[in-house]
Amino acid sequence: MKILVAVKRVIDYNVQIRVKEDGTGVVTDNVKMSTNPPDDNAIEEAVKIKEAGKATEVVAVTVGEEKAQETVRKALAVGADRGIHVKVDGILEPLAVSKILQKIVDKEKPDLVFMGKQAIDDDCNQTGQMLSALLNWPQATFASKIDVKDNKLEVTREIDEGLETIEINVPAIVTCDLRLNEPRYASLPNIMKAKKKPIEEIAATDLGVDVSPRLEQIKVEEPPKRKAGIKVANVAELVQKLKNEAKVI
Amino acid sequence: MAVLLIAEHNNKELRPFTLNAATAASQIDSDLHAVIIGQNSADAAKQLSELPVIKKVLSVEGGHYENFTAENFAPVIVKLAENYSHIVCSANTFGKNLMPRIAAHLDTSQVSDIIKVISPDTFLRPIYAGNAFATIKSNDAKKCVTIRPTSFDPCESTGGSAPIEKVDPSEEFSNTKFIKREEIKSDRPELGTARIVVSGGRGMQSGDNFKLITEIADKLGAAIGASRAAVDAGYISNDHQVGQTGKVVVPDLYIAIGISGAIQHLAGMKESKVIVAINKDGEAPIFSVADYGLEADLFEAIPQFMEELNKLNTIQK
């Protein structure tokens, strides 16, 4: 079984983002970037499945500008076998990314495609579902547990009401929840080894996909600030304030 | 062209957030229809027809719709979409799973998780876990929009009498099989719709100590929430998680106990009307969003809080 894992480069989750003064977006210059957190879970799961002898190859793919390749290099350092970097500049909508990934799937013919359930920059939560629609494959979204059986996966999904278990036939798409596993850190020797692993570079324009945006971002602004509250001295004062001032209890 | 709302339900009745989604959809265009897809869902369809904002209900029945699988739902909605300008659904796990599958089939760039309808083609949505708001205009002919239910009030639930029209089911998608759903049953208000939420974090130190949270929640008629740290530590099940990867809540009163206030948690609760933080670390980020902060050891503060609540003659429920 061959697993393709899609990874995205985003502003690191520990960074407090800043909105640009001209309202065109958020500041990304000189800001720490890293792999989208649930994409790390997707790579980890694919590598674990390979280590368990149930997959033969793990291929990491990213779509984006020059520096996006760092995310593929990181995936190689934690166990992916080779990488693909589809080069394209500018903002890409999930629909465009899923069309590009569809071309990569046509070329690579993986049995499974894994990715994070959501990117923490645009918070769209669309790409996996869109890719499975384009391929007409089953989709197991928000996965917190994956059991690989012969040509099937049993997947536990995190849903609002609790947990749901589904069985999907391969080939299939899985989008991963943070709860799926604990991603490993890359060791120094593995980081060195990863430098020798191949990354194929493909220009998005060579794939014949129209990636022009359909959405216009009119402006980006700071959310309204909460006005500063007060500190109360003790519990009695707190309850009195809730009862008589805020009138919520 | 009219707007089509996808109803969320459990085959017996509508899920509450369908009413919030209906409000948002009716703000896009007052010519609003709703589709309900399920198995033996006639009662829920009738309930839908009684929402005054809905002008027509489309009902699709079939055994393969019983468990709301996106692979089965998408084709029937894609077919119906011919007659509609917008397809709208709640941005909870049901809608998040389903809508992009529809949007890709329609070759539409979806607008996810909107918090405001600015005009029929322009919407406000949070990005970066709510740390920025983006105004987005869609230039697609057909628009697929998911709405954040807590940002819209529920619509009126009675008084309407929209006609219910049957629609033929589509074929079954055979490569996905539903096995089971484990719903956590509770007598408490649902976390997403509760008037008061009491949440515990890593500061609770154990699952046993969450009993303290339960007592206060019982007293206030509140739902119980938790930070991701508390869920990951195994103190409480994941359906209680509030935050970017859990539920977004907007109660009248949110009480955060032993929660430091990581960005991911704040994204899920900072729109609450009144926020209380109880934490022994006076520098904890949670205090920056709290209307009332109490710097105290929670194991002393919670019993005192119960005592003070017991002294009150009445408590709003």
Give the terminus-to-terminus CA distance of chain B: 43 Å
Oligomer: heterodimer
Q: Which homologous superfamily in CATH is the superfamily of chain A?
A: HUPs
Q: So how many helices of chain A?
A: 6
Structure write-up:
The complex is a heterodimer of chains A (249) and B (317). Chain A is of the alpha/beta class. Helices cover 27% and strands 31% of the residues of chain A. Chain A has a single domain (2-245), classed as Rossmann fold, CATH 3.40.50. In chain A, strands 9-8-7-10-6-1-4-5-11 form a 9-stranded mixed sheet, with helices on both faces. In chain A, strand 4 (57-64), helix 2 (69-77) and strand 5 (82-87) form a beta-alpha-beta unit. In chain A, helix 2 packs across helix 5 and helix 3 (94-108) packs across helix 4 (127-135). The longest helix of chain A has 15 residues, at 37-51. Chain A starts with a strand and ends with a helix. Chain B is α/β, with parallel strands linked by helices and 317 residues long. Chain B has 2 domains: 2-167, Rossmann fold, CATH 3.40.50.620; 196-311, TPP-binding domain (Rossmann fold, 3-Layer(aba) Sandwich). Chain B is built from 8 helices and 16 strands. In chain B, helix 3 (70-80) crosses helix 4 (93-105) and helix 5 (210-220) runs parallel beside helix 8. Strand 13 of chain A pairs parallel with strand 16 of chain B, so a sheet runs across the interface.
How is the topology of this model organized?
The complex is a heterodimer of chains A (249) and B (317).
Chain A: E1 2-6, E2 9-11, E3 33-35, H1 37-51, E4 57-64, H2 69-77, E5 82-87, H3 94-108, E6 112-116, H4 127-135, E7 139-149, E8 152-159, E9 162-169, E10 172-176, H5 188-194, E11 199-203, E12 215-221, E13 230-232, H6 235-245
Parallel strand pairs in A: 1-4, 1-6, 4-5, 5-11, 6-10, 7-10
Antiparallel strand pairs in A: 2-3, 7-8, 8-9
Chain B: E1 2-6, H1 17-28, E2 32-38, H2 42-49, E3 56-61, H3 70-80, E4 84-90, H4 93-105, E5 111-114, E6 116-119, E7 122-127, E8 132-138, E9 143-147, E10 164-167, E11 176-183, E12 196-200, H5 210-220, E13 223-226, H6 228-232, E14 253-257, H7 263-269, E15 274-279, E16 292-295, H8 298-311
Helix pairs in contact in B: 3-4, 5-8
